[in-house]
Amino acid sequence: MASIFLCGPLAQLVSGTTHRVEGYALPDDRRCFPLPEKRSGGVLEGILSDAAGLGLLQEALGGHVHALPDGAVIYARPDPQADWPGDWDADTWARNWADIAPYALREALGYAGQIDAPTLARRMPMIMSRAASQAAAQTSVPADIRSDRSHDSVEVAFVDTPHAGFFLTRSYQLRHPRFDGGVSDLLAREVFVATDAAIVLPYDPARDRVLLVEQFRMGPFGRGDARPWVLEPVAGRVDAGETPEATAHRECQEEAGLALRGLEHISSHYCSPGASSEYFHCYLGLCNLPDMAQGQGGLSTEHEDIRTHVLPFEAASALLTSGEANNGPLVLMLMWLLANRSRLRAAA
Predict the structure, then answer these.
(1) What is the CATH number of the domain that holds 240?
(2) Measuring CA to CA, which of 22, 179, 226, 312 is 20 to 30 A from 201?
(3) Distances in Å between the alpha carbon of 195 and those of 129, 139, 242?
């Protein structure tokens, strides 16, 4: 197998021998893993590597393989860009991607020999979002009451990925420190590996009304719920390189056609820490809500079939006692709004 020439971020993350290639340049296209392209007079400094999965990843990113005069290959964009955005800048890339890239690269390379490039291309958005979630999890959080033992104090004897698709599951055999000073027996545990999500309850304080979305949900369906359509706040995956606040604004526009004028942070928390890595960032979204009682929303490209409901606050809060508010985020956010409603209305 021919060695692959790597430049830019991949050359920083993968080991190899120093190499130089002429006739190509690397654009600063703001992506985590940019691809070089043919450019007269261009010169790239990088490395040659034989690491498994590198060709698969670059093909999944849209690269086409080009043979180099010395027998190595380079994966480059199929067509040069008409408007050159400038050369790739290491400092700009580091600010946006340095924390996320190692996690994304590790997962992507792990699929070598298991899937083809088109399949990896379809999975890349979720791979990047999972990587962003892992990077965000490194942020220090308080441990004033709970144990301050670190992630590294857990001994992992074995880890496997029994399912990998849009979502994935991981199975572990591990030992963790016990509160009595000992170490647990070898435990078999599984975790559903998801992403961070931004969840928004749109609220119009002047008119005292909220917007909810309704859609079919696999969780209730898989449980056998007689009515698997659920009333929820607006929600969506936090994409790699995006803040939860930016996701909140984007999802409100996509799902309900709403332009928020402000956000109030309610909480950030694990949704089901015994079994899932999913992490919620919950907000109240201040906005002007329309007069219509129902509407349609969602992106057809994501196969979303969403109905929106604009409800007076009293009708929305009644869902708490009727049981029709049957998912954690909606219950939490309506209760938070109940406690903060007077303050918000006074400021409207």
Answers:
(1) 3.90.79.10
(2) 226
(3) 6, 16, 12
H/E stretch holding 223 reads helix 218-223
pTM reported for the whole predicted model:
0.90
Do 63 and 29 touch, CB atoms closer than 8 A?
no
CB of 234 closer than 8 Å to CB of 251: yes
Same-domain check for residues 219 and 89: no
Residues 339 and 212 both lie in one domain: yes
Here the CATH number for the domain that contains residue 77 is: 3.10.490
Q: Which of 190, 214, 278, 302 is catalytic?
A: 302
Identity at 81, one-letter amino acid code: Q
Distance CA 330, CA 344 (A): 18
Question: Which of 119, 120, 122, 112 is CA-nearest to residue 54?
Answer: 112
Per-residue pLDDT reduced to its tens digit, 10-59: 999 999 999 999 999 999 989 999 999 999 999 999 999 998 899 999 99
d(CA 4, CA 82): 26
Distance CA 75, CA 347 (A): 56
Total H helices, total E strands in the chain: 9, 16
Parallel, antiparallel, or unpaired: how do β-strands 4-7 and 73-76 relate? Answer: parallel
State the pLDDT confidence band at 304, using cuts at 50, 70 and 90. low
**Is the same domain home to 103 and 122?**
yes
Q: Are residues 186 and 202 in the same domain?
A: no
DSSP 229-267: EEEE-EEEE--TT--HHHHHHHHHHHHH----SEEEEEE
Q: Could you tell me the two tokens for 294? A: 């129902």
Instruction: Please tell me whether residues 265 and 165 are part of one structural domain.
Output: no
**329 half-sphere exposure, CB direction, 13 A CA radius:** 29
Q: What are phi and psi of 201, to 5 degrees?
A: -100, 105
Express the helix, strand and coil content of the chain in percent, nearest 5 each: 30, 35, 35
> The sheet that has 155-164: what strands, in order across it?
155-164, 168-175, 187-193
Closest CA to 92 of 186, 182, 28, 4: 28
